[in-house]
Amino acid sequence: MSLDNNKVACPMDCYDACQGQMIDENIKGSKEHKTTNGKLCVNFANLLKEENLSSAIFQGKKISLDESLNILRDKLKNTTPSNTLFYTGSGNLGVMQSSTKNFFTQYGSTLTRGSLCDGIGAAGIEAGRQHVINPPIQKLIDADIIIVWGRNFSVTSSHMYNLVKDKTFVTIDPICTDIAKKSKIHMQINPKTDYELALLFTRFAYMQDLEDKEFIEEFGNGADWFFDISRNRPVVSYEATTGVPLSQVNDFFDLIQNKKVAIMLGLGVQKYFEGAQITRCIDSFAAYMGYHKQDAGGLWYLSDSSYGYEKQFEVKGNNKKVSIPKVDFGSYDLVFIQGGNPVVSHPNTQKVIDGLKNTFVVYFGTTLNDTCEYADLIIPSSSFLSKKDLRLSYGHEFKSISNIVKIKNENTISEYELASYLIEQFGFEKLKSEDEVISYYENHKPNLSDFGTFNFIEEVEIEALYKDKTADNFYFITAKAKNSLNSQFAKDNFVYLNSATNFKDGDLVNISSKNGSAQFVVKIDDDIKSDCAFFFAGNKYVNYLTLALEDESSFSAMYQEVLVEIELS
Ligand SMILES: Nc1nc2c(c(=O)[nH]1)N[C@H]1C(S)=C(S)[C@@H](COP(=O)(O)OP(=O)(O)OC[C@H]3O[C@@H](n4cnc5c(=O)[nH]c(N)nc54)[C@H](O)[C@@H]3O)O[C@H]1N2
Ligand SMILES: Nc1nc2c(c(=O)[nH]1)N[C@H]1C(S)=C(S)[C@@H](COP(=O)(O)OP(=O)(O)OC[C@H]3O[C@@H](n4cnc5c(=O)[nH]c(N)nc54)[C@H](O)[C@@H]3O)O[C@H]1N2
Ligand code: SF4
Ligand SMILES: [Mo]
Question: Which bound ligand lies closest to the C-alpha atom of 91?
Fold first, then answer.
């Protein structure tokens, strides 16, 4: 095998989108890929160790792959298309995953809209500057100061972090994360008050004459209104609501003055009903300082990785669309789930389970996950090692390529093969060839020309969580774990609490929200703010507490728009 054919892209949902290479039966991180820089992570090792599905299953019994495909085809032929739901998670982020959407669009299934991930923040950034595009990574490398805002930077994008680990960091996070410990300043902010902090920063910037007047003049629209919002309140009032001392804000401005500043913005700030406004306030502060158009620095979020590419599998359709967090699985005759584990990762677990029990569930995935328990038909998807693909990244601008490096298990089928089979059986319009699609993505250079106008947020209407919070309430925080990838490889079902809460290690507690309740075992950890209950994403019980409701602007799940109570059980 020539060296170029042994490339393997990590398929997992992660900022880094690493490039691997199969060398003598082992996969090593590629040295030529700038962010990968010769290393892969523990989750990649976990992925290689995973036991993949090796047989199709119908109503609990193993069947052949062909039989499973016939059952799926016949079921689809006998069901009204709009009474079927096509639901995908993000277990594999290769571009070939969307081939199946082409079939289900032509067939007439109901599709989902919105996101379980970054949709809310993306809507906020788009409102200000049309597109969510990250600056080139070199501008991060050339920055002096990195503000890590609501992002677990060294854990959730460890490779991007490695490129800049010697810089000076400021972290804004209610949790004392690994990067917070490595930071010069850690602002341990109260959850859902980041817009207030952004407004306070703006006020300070004005007082110290630090705003970028040239940027505002040339690109800005509405900067005066934005500044006016920040002037609505006495400066000292922000201290109590955000939990950030003004002295720290002073230190912060001493640190960033005349420096090239990068903001690494993460999911933490936006998991709320008005998360788009919150994100837009932060992006507006960045614009006020002129960070968006400097030769170094800028603001990085989860970029729209396919921006500037033509979607290779897109087909027009009049399909109904349902908001993803609000989906009621039980209201469809058939639900097709690909690459996701909604029983753990979707909000309101009880509603998910009740719905899945009430419909015909087809699960198409690589492993026997929690959702499979409710599946009538399980179709095994081929391992990423046995399918051609290409990865774009939402963290940086580099692509990674996946060739076939392992002979496929004949009882499994790739997404592209499944889509092609169904298209043929229904006589629909064929897909472009795999090679054509991959070579398009490989060779196309997207035009990432920057925005011409920045629209500052001019009005802010946000209900603070602290207004509803009683002394018995805790803020509810979930974030990613180092050794798991969402629900993949996840084993940690604890609730983490500060020792000031008077709970003890090993206590069994009942935690309830207005949605529901579940039991957890306590782990004491003083990195957690004392009024917060912290859980890792992938915790099997945590989404019993979250609401199956959408945010105000992007049909997306708002996992932290909830307060919880904790009692010994
Ligand atoms: N190891 C590992 N890496 C991953 C993943 C994984 O599961 N494991 N998942 C991948 C995926 S799908 C995604 S989307 C990305 C997400 O990666 P990140 O953007 O890092 O997102 P989270 O880990 O959800 O949360 C980030 C931080 O926000 C903080 N936070 C919570 N609430 C608030 C708040 O109100 N204000 C502020 N300022 N901070 C808050 C949390 O304490 C946490 O430290 O990571 C990807 N990378
Ligand atoms: N409370 C709370 N809930 C959250 C979050 C949170 O922070 N807090 N995070 C949210 C975020 S950011 C995200 S992105 C979502 C993630 O939610 P999901 O997208 O549902 O991700 P997972 O639960 O990890 O499930 C991924 C599944 O994909 C399957 N899979 C892996 N590779 C392949 C493949 O090649 N083909 C196919 N067909 N299947 C494959 C695996 O078997 C795995 O079980 O969870 C969200 N849920
Ligand atoms: S850091 Fe992310 S992209 Fe890289 S190997 Fe690990 S999971 Fe995959
Ligand atoms: Mo995500």
Answer: 2
Burial of 477 (0-12, 13-18, 19+ CB in 10 A): buried
Helices (H), ranges, 367-521? 415-426, 434-443
Asked if 190 and 205 touch (Cβ cutoff 8 Å), the reply is no
Distance CA 426, CA 338 (A): 20
Half-sphere exposure of 165 (CA within 13 A, CB side): 12
Q: Is the pTM value of this prediction over 0.85?
A: yes
The answer to whether residues 329 and 355 touch, using CB atoms and an 8 Å cutoff, is yes
Secondary structure (H, E, C), 161-196: HHCCCCCEEEEECCCCCHHHHCCCEEECCCCCCHHH
3-state DSSP assignment of residue 57: strand
| Distance from C-alpha of 152 to C-alpha of 178, rounded to nearest angstrom | 8
Q: Tens digits of per-residue pLDDT, 300-328?
A: 999 999 999 999 999 999 999 999 999 99
Share of the chain above pLDDT 90, in %: 98
Is the pLDDT reported for residue 73 higher than 90? yes
3-class DSSP state for residue 43? helix
**Atom in ligand 1 nearest the alpha carbon of residue 481:** 8
CA 479, distance to chain mean position in Å, is 10
Tell me the ligand closest to 16's alpha carbon.
3
Q: Tell me, in angstroms, the distance from the centre of ligand 2 to residue 342's CA.
A: 8
Give, using CA atoms, the residue closest to atom 40 of ligand 2.
Answer: 339
Number of helices followed by number of strands (H, E) in the chain: 18, 26
Predicted local distance difference test score (pLDDT) of residue 264: 98
Q: Got the DSSP string for 257-304? A: TTS-EEEEE-GGGG-STTHHHHHHHHHHHHHHTTGGGSSS-EEE-S--
Rounded alpha-carbon distances, angstroms, from residue 561 to 1, 47, 225, 552: 52, 32, 27, 12
Q: Distance (Å, rounded) from C-alpha 94 to C-alpha 90?
A: 9
**pLDDT tens digits, residue range 145-181?**
999 999 999 999 999 999 999 999 999 999 999 999 9
CB of 71 within 8 A of CB of 360? no
Cα-based distances in Å from 223 to 286, 301, 421, 459: 12, 22, 54, 11
